[in-house]
Amino acid sequence: MGLRAAMVVHPASGLGRAGRIAGAVADRLRGAVDDLVTVRVDSVEESRRLMGDAHAAGLDLLVVVGGDGSVHQGVQFCADRGVALAVIPAGTGNDLARTLGAPTDPLAAADALVADIRADRRTRIDLGKVEGGPWFAGVLCAGFDSAVNERANRMRWPRGPRRYDLAIVAELARLRAARLSVVEDGTRADHSAATQIAIGNVPHYGGGIPICPAADPTDGLFDITLVGRATRLDLVRMLPGLRTGRHVEHRLVTATRAREVSLGEDNGWVAYADGERIGPLPVRVTCVPNALEVFGRVVSG
C-alpha cells in the first residue's frame, strides 16, 4: 500500500510565499504518493481541526508548507498520532528544514522530498516536551532573545525581519540580567545574574543562528547554552561569533548537555519554543528520544 498524505499550507508564511508555491509543490508530490489531500489554513485552530479530519480519514504522512510556526503545529499533530512529517521550507526561519537537509528553495525541497519518499528515506528524531505543554522540535529559549520575540509580536510595523532588528535595538536599551535557577538531570545551579538561556534539540533558531551549535536531534540529549551577566557591549561583541557558533567560546557562555532541564523561579522571563510563546517561567522540559518520524536525513550544524 502506498502513502496517504496530507499537505498543509499556511498561505501567509514567508510573507505569502507558501501560498504562491503550494500548487507547484502539490503537483510534484502527486507523483510520489497514492493519495494527497491539500489543506489551506489561516489559523492555528483551523490547522488543528483540518489535520484531525485528515487523520480520521487515514494518513501516513503530513507535509507542511510554511515556516517554523507552521512546522510547530505539524509536530504537535504528528508526535501525538504516529504520523510521519515532512517539511517544505517557505517561511522566514526554516530551522527544522535546515536540520533535515532540505534545500532552501521550496520547489527544490519538494523534488528532494519526492526522492526521499521513493527511496523510503526516513529518520526518527528526538523532540522536546514541555511539562504540561507542547512538543518542540527546535530550541526553547528564555531571557533576552525571548524578550525580543515578545516585543516583535507586539509591533505592527514593519513587517518581516526588519521588525526583529528594531526589537533587538529596543531590548538592548533596556537590558537587565536576572536571577535564574537551572536544574539539569537533577543537578541544580543558581545563577545570581543571567542574560539568556537556550535549550536546543537542533543547532539553529532565528533563521539559521547556531545558538546550540553541537545539538543533534538523534542523540537523546538537549544542548544548553547559557549566557551569564552580559552588558550591551558584551552582546554586541558576541554577535559575530553567534553566526558561526563561536559564541560558546566566550567567557560569559556556558555550554552543557542534559535530558531533563528545569528553569526555576518566576524572574520575569517568558519561554519561547520553535518561535512560539510557551509562557512565563518556571518551565520544565524533557528530551524524548525517537519521538518523531521524518522524511530526509539529519545534517550536522
From TrEMBL:
InterPro entries: ATP-NAD_kinase_N, Diacylglycerol_kinase_cat_dom, Lipid_Phosphate_FormReg, NAD/diacylglycerol_kinase_sf, YegS/DAGK_C
Gene source species: Actinophytocola gossypii
Family membership noted in the UniProt record: Belongs to the diacylglycerol/lipid kinase family.
Taxonomic classification: Bacteria, Bacillati, Actinomycetota, Actinomycetes, Pseudonocardiales
Coiled-coil intervals, chain numbering: none
Cofactors named for this entry: Mg(2+)
Domain DAGKc intervals: 1-134
Entry's Gene Ontology molecular function annotations: kinase activity
Name recorded for this polypeptide: Sphingosine kinase
Entry keywords, A to Z: ATP-binding, Kinase, Lipid biosynthesis, Lipid metabolism, Nucleotide-binding, Phospholipid biosynthesis, Phospholipid metabolism, Transferase
Glycosyltransferase found in the keyword field: no
Residues of the signal peptide: none
Keyword Transferase appears in the UniProt entry: yes
